[in-house]
Amino acid sequence: MWSDSEVLEVLRGTVPYYLLLALPIMIILSPMPVDAAADFTVYRLQQYDLHSVAHGSRSSLVNVEARTLDANSLARKCVLARLADLTPSHYHRVVSQGAVALLVLIPSNLTALSPDHRQMMRDIETTMLETETQMAVYLAYETEEISEIYESVRTASNTDSASSAAAALVSSLSSDGYQMVISGSQSKAIHDMAIANVQGKLSGNGVEEQLPTVVVVAHYDTFGAAAELSGGGDSNGSGVVMLLELARIFSRLYNSPRTHPRLNMLFLLSGGGYINYQGSKRFLEDHLDASDSPLLSETRFVLCLDTLANGHTLRLHVSKKPKEGSAGHAFYQALETVGAELGIGVDMVHRKINLQDDTQAWEHEKFSMRRLPAFTLSRLENPKSGERGSILDTVDSMDVSTLTKHTNAVATAMLTFIYNTSVHDILSDGLKVSEDSVSSWLSLMASQPRSPQLLAGKSNPLVKTLESTFKRFMSEASVSWVKADKRDPEWVFYDVTTASMAAYAVKPAAFDFLLTIAIISYLSVIYVFLQYFPKLYTAMVRAVSPQKNKVQ
C-alpha cells in the first residue's frame, strides 16, 4: 500500500501535466455546433460579354462573414442588403470597399412594390448590369428565416459604430455572426451556345416569288438582373402573344379560298433580343446576303412587336417616317382609325439610328439599317425607361384585358390594310381575338424563365412548343440556330445562374480570444492548486489536530 505522502507526490508531480495536455484536447475534439443555420436558394447576377465588353458579376463563390450596409468596413465581407435600402450609390460603395459578395433581399411579392421602390429596383438593375464587378452578387427572396439572419447580422454590424470599445465588445459577444458559404466550381463560359429563330410563312394566292411580303417579328427571350428571375411578361411575352394570335387568325384566313389574299405573311420569333437582336441580325444575313433567297425582296413593311400589355397608348417607333401612300403609312392610318374606335391612343415616334452606338434601341432598327421599311409597335415612349429587361416584369403584372384589346386593334388594322374593306365582312366568331386565347398564350410564355442562356439547348421545351405551334398554323415553319463566332464572339454567357447558399452561425473573433483566456486561467488555477496541495493539506491537518486533542 502507498503512504499518504507517496500519493500526494504522484498527484503533485503528474496530474497537473496530464490535465494541461488532456483538457485542451477534449475541448478541441468536443462536438461543435457547425450545422447550417439556414440553407436557401439564391439567384446570381447575370454574367455575360457583349461586343467584348464584360458585364455583371465575374465571381460565383462565397465563403466570408456577413455584414449589412450599416457596417463601417465591408472589406472581405458578404454584404446583406434589403432592396428598399439599396441605391446605386450604396452599390458603388460596396464595390469600392472591397466586399467579396453582395446578397440583395427582394420581397416575395414583387407586384406589391410601390412605384418608388419599383423605380429604385430598375435603377439598381441597370447599375449592376452595365458595370463589371469581381464581387459575387446574388438575389434571394426574403423569407422569415432569412429575415432573422439579416436582423442578427445587422446587430453585429452595429458594433462597428458603437460609442466605446467596451460597448462594442459587449455587443459583439452577445450577438451571433454568420458565415455565408456558396461552394462548388467557379463560373465558366458556355461554349457552343446556340440561339433559336422560329419562323413560319403563309404564302399568298398566286406566284409566291412575285407577291409582296409583310413581316411580323417579336423576340421571345427576356432579361433581368438574374437569369432565373427573368419572366419577361410584358417585354416581351406580350409581343410573342400578339404574334401568335395574329398567326392563328391569319392562318385560318389563308386556308379559305374566299379570304386567301395576294400577299405573303412571314412570322419570326427571334432569339437574342437583349443581346443586340442577334436573331434578327442572322435572319437578315441569311435572306438578304444570300442571292438565292427572294423572301425579303418585295417586303412592304416589317412590324416588330414589343411591350404591349399595359397602358392606353400604342406608339409606332420609326427610324424614317413612312411616306404618304406607302404600305407603312397605310397601316399606320388604319391603326389610328381602329384605335379611335377602341379608345386607344396611337402615336408615331421618330428616332434616327445612331450609328455610333454598339447596340440598337429597337428591333426594327436592324431591318431599317438594311433599307427595309420597318417600325416597332410598343406602349413605351422611351426604349431605355427601365421597364424592359427587369425582374419586375412578371406575367402577374400584365393586364390581360388590355393586351387583348391591343391585339384586337393590331389584327383589325392589319386586316384593313390587307383586304381594304370592313373587317366585319371577314371576321367570324372563331377568328376574333379572345381573352381566353390570349391567356393561354401567356401561360405558355410563363412556363419558364427565358433569359438567353436558359434557352440555349436545342431540345429546349419552350422552343419546341413554339415550333410545333408554328407548324400547326403554317405549312412552312422551321427553326434555325445562331452561334457566336468562336474566334471573335459577339456575345458570351456564363453558367451558375442559381446556387444554394448556407449561413453558418459563428461567434466573433473576440469571443474566441476571451474563451482562450478563460481556459488558460482555469488551467492555471488547477495547476497552482495541485502544485501546492501538500502544503494546503498539511495546513488543514494542523488546523484540525488541536481540535481533536481538546475533544479527547
UniProtKB/TrEMBL annotation:
Localization, UniProt: Endoplasmic reticulum membrane
**Domain (Peptidase M28): residue spans on this chain:** 197-412
The main location is endoplasmic reticulum
Q: Which GO terms describe its biological process?
A: regulation of signal transduction
Coiled coil (residue ranges): none
Any one GO CC term of the record? endoplasmic reticulum membrane
Output the Pfam families linked to this UniProt entry: Peptidase_M28
Protein topology in the membrane:
Single-pass membrane protein
Q: Which Gene3D superfamilies match?
A: Zn peptidases
Task: Please give the start and end residues of each transmembrane region.
Answer: 15-34, 509-530
Keywords, A to Z?
Endoplasmic reticulum, Glycoprotein, Membrane, Signal, Transmembrane, Transmembrane helix
Family the UniProt entry places it in: Belongs to the nicastrin family.
Protein name in the entry: BOS complex subunit NCLN
- Origin species: Meganyctiphanes norvegica (Northern krill)
